[in-house]
Write a structure and sequence with these properties.
The protein is α/β, with parallel strands linked by helices. It is built from ten helices and nine strands. The protein starts with a helix and ends in a 5-residue tail after the last strand. InterPro entries: Methyltransf_25, SAM-dependent_MTases_sf.
Length: about 270
């Protein structure tokens, strides 16, 4: 966990969502949130919400939003956003009371909980603080992300990268054995069927798993020009909505979002 905290404290994600595949991820995540969150002013607990990349938009739309994040520097920045409150905390042991919020976002914690027991703890905490009928939207990284990313970014030129991919494909565990290379920090990469299984084991009803970027993220920096044009954004969002739940394409997406509900109340 120390390596993960250091990665984020160094600003490893600070500009990732600004261009290319990162911008596609952000646009698609906002699109999914807009369609699956309850109408404002539903209370939203943004667990692992970092500096508030999504919390600020949700607060502006009328949602009361509270961010919980492990990194104090993230919490300080998120708390400056209008309508957003924030605290340091752990997804596996939330301070919020039972049945106290209408929606929980897990748009990061499941990336870095390497053991199934820890991931289930985060899912169970999300279920605990949800009101009956409330929704969890949980992001995970695809099992095959580093295999593709190695080609997109030219990482295979370094012979130390292929063994990292081998381990991730075999076990789901991505270990950055060369932190100085700037590769992604330690993480767990889910197979498409795993997040829904985890949600169900935590007592939630997993309704669907959605591909965030689909296969388009593999265009890399070529996406920047496409997404600089409002017509290009509309085209991408419209087309990706058509196939976001297609089972045969889920594994090609870099990220997945699982939509799950606490039973009762809907």
């Amino acid at each position: 966990m120390a390596d993960i905290l250091e990665y984020y404290r160094r600003g490893g994600e600070r500009t990732r969502l600004d261009a290319g595949a990162g911008l596609l991820e952000a646009l698609r995540t906002r699109d999914i949130l807009a369609r699956y969150l309850p109408a404002p002013p539903a209370s939203v607990l943004d667990v692992g919400g970092a500096t508030g990349a999504y919390a600020g938009d949700l607060a502006a739309a009328g949602h009361p939003v509270h961010v919980v994040d492990l990194v104090p520097e993230h919490v300080e920045r998120a708390a400056t956003l209008p309508g957003v409150t924030a605290e340091v905390g752990d997804a596996r042991a939330l301070a919020q009371p039972d049945a106290s919020v209408e929606a929980v976002l897990l748009l990061g914690p499941l990336y870095h909980l390497l053991s199934r027991a820890d991931r289930l703890a985060a899912w169970r905490e999300a279920a605990r603080v949800l009101r009956p009928g409330g929704v969890v939207l949980a992001a995970t990284i695809s099992r095959f992300a580093s295999l593709h990313d190695g080609f997109v970014r030219g990482y295979y030129a370094d012979p130390r990268f292929a063994p990292i991919v081998d381990r991730a494909l075999a076990t789901g565990v991505h270990r950055n054995t060369e932190p100085g290379r700037g590769w992604f920090t330690d993480a767990y990469f889910h197979r498409p069927e795993e997040p829904a299984d985890e949600a169900r084991e935590a007592g939630l009803t997993a309704e669907r798993v959605l591909a965030v970027e689909g296969s388009l993220w593999q265009l890399g920096d070529r996406l920047t020009d496409l997404l600089a044009d409002p017509d290009g954004i509309r085209l991408v969002l419209d087309q990706l909505r058509r196939v976001e739940a297609e089972p045969s394409l889920l594994g090609s997406s870099s990220h997945l979002i699982t939509v799950a509900y606490r039973p009762g109340g809907r």
